Protein 1
Amino acid sequence: MFTVLEVTPLKASFRRHSWIPGALALLLSAALPVAAAAQSRDDAQRILVVSFQSADKSLGAKAANAVRDKLGKEFNPKEVWVIPTVDINNTLAASGYPVDEALGPSDARQLAVQVRADQYVDGAVTQTPTGVRIDARMVLSRDQQLAQVLPRVEAPNVDRAAAMVVAAVKAARSQVAGELACYRSFREEKYDVAVAAARKVVASNPNATLAAICLGNAYGALHQQDSVQALGERIVAADPRNLPALTWLAEIYRTKNDPRRLDILKALLAADPTNIRLQQQVVNELASSGQAASAIPFITNLIQSNPGDPQILRTGWLVLLAAKDYDRALKVGEELIRVDTAAADTSYYIKTAGVYTALNRPADATATLQTGAQRFPGNSTLSLAGIQNLIKAGRMAEAAAAARRILAKDPKNANANVLLIQALSSPDEISSAINSAVSAGADPAVLSQLALQQASTAINAAQQTKVRADYQRALTF
């Protein structure tokens, strides 16, 4: 049921810049100082600190440099090698990427893979009235979803704030060996061994999110759903945007029909706003759970962020229909069939006609169905829906003519026979149409009601006229 959330390493490339691997390898080999290379052993763990996000770009680079420098002084380079600033800058410059610009989550991971880091630290730094605030996290390079959120730090200056971040990184790294042991055992399908390794870490450090994620995966492999749920809820309480834990809980709450699932789905959307596939999945689930209205802000953002994407437009159209936001649904539907003419299928015309009907625009509903029927002349559903709208609009002659066109090709079409009866006004024609509908196999209960209505009308007329023929007509019905 649960699997390790792992990203397969990609080719080293940023979204906006391309790499030249051969030249880059030469550049890096030249940039590494001989003394540093001698200090760093092949079996040393490697950690990267990327520029922090900040409204002040220079502040983001300054904070990252301070954390990087202090980390380098805290560890024995034979055990933990902090990737030097010069190596980071050379790698970024080789791709044409600004060295002082903060990276997005995917780009940060790509850089970590490129410089062979086992973990990387990213975050955001904010200037405050009393100094600076840093929100950071330590991420395992093999999967950007495996992150340990570090405690928020506030200090009078960057230097003191960086020292506090370094202390938090050191504490977070205490789980690295245990998490790795759990991960390797999990990959070997030794789930009990993985559980034991992770539990040992969590017992000594209850805030060890990385080890807890591996523990949850191992519990899932052992089908211990209640343990996964308890662990997931504990992780989310400390880290509300933890994707692995949110994913577990979304699935568990679904199987248990737990109403908290909707809140978890919304948290998933907030946690990974750039994941289009996840966004569409969650939006669809919210809509199917009767919570379409709460999905509108998310689908609106998706549509705005991905203009002209037919799949997203269709999802948005369906969500707006489910939420009964009809005016916006019409606009999105029009854009959908503009960018993808194949989307104008029979379902589109029927649903759009239904929207016009709900908006009390019967003429538009009828025109939509007629357009659909012209495009799909062999589709009786569209034609029948169009006849129904003509009857509702009181356009009986047109409805009767349309029904007869269907019956000319398919005399035993029960629905067309019933609609013809409803559209006729002449008692003799109605009587004949009812008999034809009986032969066509139309629903007897429906025909009974239609005949009863005609009989009641004919009796009332006969009582007024006192004419024998009128009574006989009523008796016929």
Protein 2
Amino acid sequence: PDARLRRSMAPGAATWLAIVAANAAFARAAAAVAIRFARIRRTADRLAPGLVLLDFRSHRLALFTALADAYALTAVANAAKRNHAAADASGSAGWTPWTAVDPLLPLLKTAATDLAARTVRECRSRCGAPGFVGAPILLAYEAATEAYRTAGGDNRLVRFDTARGMLTAEPPAGRAPETLRGPGDFARLAAVCERRLRTVLADGLVAARASGAD
């Protein structure tokens, strides 16, 4: 039965890729709407009357950060589409079948939906009242990002299952880099963080079992 379930879930990899790409598109579109609005909306501030919103550093920083997040998410989505190979559905099933089908794509889906939801929410809030009525498309984007938190596998369950898989897998080896100058240095740093998190998780599980917790 487990093997049949994994084979049935294998085509879901295309769904996860689509969800990641869709959330990247939501984030880009929301950033474009918010920045376009900030370029024309003038304020009645007594200290600097007549300035457009984008002239204020705090507003500009928030929107450009949202734009950077949107393009980072787009880069992740494009890389996932280029590098993804057909899932063989040969992994061991945990509480859920998703990580047994593909260990990475479900996790990318959770990260993409969370980042997109945060980005779209920030863009909508920076538009004030027009974010609700003048540009209602932002509400639609926000609703879609929230829906995808559970569509294609609940984000929390995917993380639980990923954590369970990490406990049974061999942790990455290597030392932390002395400097962070290139992609390889960041990859090694991430490996060190993963190994430490795995240790914390394993120690917490041992403590929970010792205390009789489920």
Protein 3
Amino acid sequence: MNRRRFLTNAMAGVAAAATVRADGAQAPMGPRSATANPTGRGEGPAPVPLEKLARVGIMTLNHGPMLRLPWNATPSPAQTLALFDLPQYYVDQYGVRNIEFQHTHLAQGTSEPDVAFFRELKSRIDAAGSRANQINLEIGAITELGAPDARAAWMAHAKKWVDAAPVLGATRLLLNQSGLNDQNMAVATAVWKEIQDYARPKGIKISAENRPYNSKEYGPPADLPNRSRFTWGLLEECARAAGGYTNVDFGRTGRFLSQRELHEAIAGMFTSNAGSVHVKTSPLWDLGTAIRYTESLGFTGLYTIEVDLDPAVRMVYNIVLANMA
């Protein structure tokens, strides 16, 4: 995942000032009701069938700037949402019960997962009627583990997260495979296969997502076949060889330059999909069209929102719900 901010303040303002009609078109919002949240956070669940809301997920990454973590003794004024309150917050504001956690929101820095802490958090997730959909494990790129000592240290750390994930109820772990290329693919595949083999008996899928195209590393982006191979083709090859899974990230300007490129990637990684995709918007393609295309392939998994803070989350949430089958 690219952790840079996705939407500018201007785009967030547009999202806060508009909603999406049932036909997918944007329309001005009417006056807020007297019961609207006075903080401006969220707007409450959309008036759609529950089965649609059940296919939406939200990343804790979206609310990182406002998230108050248990080990933060001196939170900033912006950190107004406690981690243990997050499951209920997503239910109250969006009707969404699928939560995708950053591993740094579950453990401080490079700390190992704390099973007692996971149990406490799981009780809050259960109380909200929610579930931990996935943990995004940013403990080092698997493409950089050619040295035996580095690989052994990474694997020992990763296995502790695999062991702890069922305590939280998570059945998916997302790896970081930034910089995947022909030179490091064998290393990445071997690491991925080893951790997937370890996780499989525990019912856990180990996935990775397509990353932005790097023209400095792979060559001019105008070469479409070559560009597509490095944007998602190598990842698909690696996943199949490792017995792992993929998580399609619709991306922004760094991944796909057109609707066709995005749709090719969605179709190309469809059979290896772990059951979730990451959604956001881009000026280069239309999210609603991409959702409808994904649905046409028979996708029944989660559309997990990856943007930034409530106004932007609300915009993507509305588009997803309006275009889902």
Protein 4
Amino acid sequence: MADGTQSIGRAIQILKAFDDENPTRDLTQLVEVTGLNKTTVHRILNALEQEGLIERTDDNGYCLGSELIAMGGRAARANNLREASYSHIRALSRITGETTTLEIIRRENNITFTLVIDEVLGKHLVGINQYIGTKLPIHATSTGKAILAYLPDDAINDLQTPELRQYTVATVTSYENLNAELRKIRSTGYSLVMGELEEGLVAIGAPVFNHNAEPVAAISLVGPSVRINREKAVALSADVMSTAASISYAIGYREPETV
């Protein structure tokens, strides 16, 4: 690897060391997490700090800088899918009163997950916040299942995580049961997850298709089980599917013509 490319890769590695669980880190922690030597990490941190991508904390640690916030905003505004979807998920949230999200699939270090790229909060005081940028397990989310259900079999095999981690007693932990769920989703057009990621969390998902009829994203309607029981979730699924269909149409998807 060329020196310039290697330096960029190391800088990105350091930036990715900060996450929701570790918003701040000190030099020693960054050395441990990245596996880079102390001198290299310190040099890259100084360069990132000069560009506003890293900032010092009061206790002489480090956190992501304000320039990254600005860059993230520009990236979000440039995302055509997000722009095309926002008015639709906002309308769905207003109609139902519940939180809605737009999510895509990403893969890092052989782990596939759903990534929240937009969210509209519901009107209730007791609600669910997923937060933009949150990474969620693909097998325990309505969005992950909604996308998986419409991918080719070989793609599904490639996307599946090494193991299906159990988050609650309701989490699907076998591929046999997961595949059975995916077949059901293909027949109904929506996915329903009740307490699989977190107890009391209910989510209804539907896929978003691009102009090539590929599932490129999914939306979800999320709320607590005290407001959304199974019967209500099934009723709300029509609104979720209709919203997903409107987004799909907005980004170029057209229903195949029937003979």
